[in-house]
Amino acid sequence: MTAGGARVLHATGLRLAGHGVLITGPSGSGKSLLALDLLDQFSLRGQEALLVADDGVAIAVEADGLMMAAPKSIAGLIELRGRGIVPMAHADKARVDLVVDVVETLDRMPEEAEFATVLAGVAVARCPVPRRGETDPVHQRLLVLAALRALGWPG
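^ thats the sequence. predicted structure below, dont judge the formating
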């Protein structure tokens, strides 16, 4: 699927303390809930915490690298199951620095190759995170924070 030359992915995009985070995974795997948790935690730390898009993220390769943006119809909106669609502070676009991949199971000691992926022909850091139920929200958050620290976020 494309929008204005961009490819739209079933994903959630965030900008956290200047880092673009794209959360991918199957429908119902908890992408939006993980995103809301991360947004809340960064906000509590007094750091930038902005939604880029939920459920559909347009990605395109630009001069600055792989960029993500919200399709206009869903900009600033995220699903909170049990509440519905809620508005959030948002950024129009962000560079994709990290792909958080919600997966079914956790590898206790993943190989280094598991921490990288290629998206739209661009190499990007990857953080596999088990879905909720396989692990708890704190563990999910700690995995994402460790991946961001590996990218230079001082934490």
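The first strand starts at residue 2 and ends at 3.
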